[in-house]
Amino acid sequence: MALPSSAAPLPLAGKTVVVTGASDGIGRAAAEQFVTLGAATVVLVGRRAAKTEAAATGIVAATGRPVVHCEIADLSRRDEVAALAARLRARHPAIHVLANNAGGLFLDRGLTADGIEQTLALNHLAYVQLTLALLDPLLAAAAPGAPTRVLCVSSRAHRNARVDFGDLPLARGYGGWRAYANSKLCNIWFARALARRLDPAQVVVHSLHPGVVRTRFAEDNGPAGRLLRWVMDRVSIGAAEGADTLAWLAWAPDAARDSGSYWVRRTRTQPSRAGADDDLAEQCWRETDALLGMDANVVVAAARARSLAG
Ligand SMILES: NC(=O)c1ccc[n+]([C@@H]2O[C@H](COP(=O)([O-])OP(=O)(O)OC[C@H]3O[C@@H](n4cnc5c(N)ncnc54)[C@H](OP(=O)(O)O)[C@@H]3O)[C@@H](O)[C@H]2O)c1
Prior knowledge:
This protein is of the alpha/beta class. 45% of the residues lie in helices and 13% in strands.
């Protein structure tokens, strides 16, 4: 990781960072970089306590900075996302960076405990639900010239999406890669749509492609998953390199503007034509409301009003 100039104070000094999917892969590597970048607190969100705590122990050993905390939640379950958000709000009244990163590929269609297709639930709905539930601490952490940041790990795979708004959970015509690509397009749409509703002087929202990264991604899909991993590993970058753009977006002055953008290798990049379409982003926003049973416009407006009321 290229650090900012040694004369400058560490860019995340005093800041609280929350990163999901932090027990492994890109999220774990990013968490370590957030610690190295001086964050006062880095919250590792994982779904398995022992594995997440082992990641925390490894990060403290590697950095010498005991600033990590673990939170455990299965992010494919709405009740667990809600409970996680409530704990985070209680423990961290100011959150400067939220890195929505936990995600997966499921070659076989499956439903979550809530009866929602699991790719959509984990890769998209959890990003939305968690972010909206953390708007109070995100707005509270905003300072003049230093907006807080919501970062959504998407993928170049979004370019292969074929979204049917009449059937986001792909009850018909499920394919694992299609579900994955669609969910990653939803990440880009969510970043765009949320950015339009927030003052970029307070909160900026970005999506990104981390690169093709050597992680455990897709491995839990039986022999097909292991074969896929073997192929991906031939062309992958390491997890630290894969976490670089995510970590950079958390502090770089260049990323404090252009809210709603999509980034690849620290560079603002044009997403697919669909990804750049604000009408489609709005349609996704409305369909997401229906799936989550809420009115996200009301949630955002209420959080902004509370923030103004001080
Ligand atoms: N690897 C790539 O080439 C690549 C390329 C483009 C985009 N991405 C994106 O990068 C993000 C991270 O992927 P990765 O490559 O780092 O994959 P990974 O190594 O499989 O890590 C995924 C992380 O998400 C967690 N997770 C999975 N299901 C969860 C659940 N139900 N609740 C809570 N946490 C859960 C995992 O926890 P466990 O440790 O318990 O499994 C792990 O910490 C994903 O959004 C992915 O779409 C990856």
